[in-house]
Amino acid sequence: MKPMITYDDFEKLDVRMAKIVAAEKIEGADKLLKLTLDLGDKTQTVAAGIALHYQPEEVVGLTVPVLVNLAPRLMRGVMSCGMVLMPSSADGKPVPLLPMTDVPPGVQVK
């Protein structure tokens, strides 16, 4: 477990549901996929470390939670603006967290 944070720390996190509208492999990066996310009022690009487990076409169309206010970071030539949030299964495979009903892109996770 990580150290305890305050509610004020938690309030700084902006987690929203995003629809993956495009995905592609990143040249020279075996573990990363470049994902284009629909956040309702804008699109955002993230590099996600899921390429060892998923082909790009397997994730397009999924609606997943994303930390959208993470500082941008250059990853293998892709400016990643956020982080897709996925737990790992017992064997280490990332597992998408999917809503049980349709939710619009951009809705805040509380």
Automatic annotation (TrEMBL):
Its main location: cytoplasm. One of its GO terms (cellular component) is cytoplasm. It catalyses: tRNA(Met) + L-methionine + ATP = L-methionyl-tRNA(Met) + AMP + diphosphate. The keyword Repeat does not apply. Residues 9-110 form the TRNA-binding domain. It comes from the Bacteria. One of its GO terms (biological process) is translation. It is an enzyme of class 6 (ligase). It is found in: Cytoplasm. Is required not only for elongation of protein synthesis but also for the initiation of all mRNA translation through initiator tRNA(fMet) aminoacylation. This is Methionine--tRNA ligase. It comes from Candidatus Harrisonbacteria bacterium CG10_big_fil_rev_8_21_14_0_10_49_15.
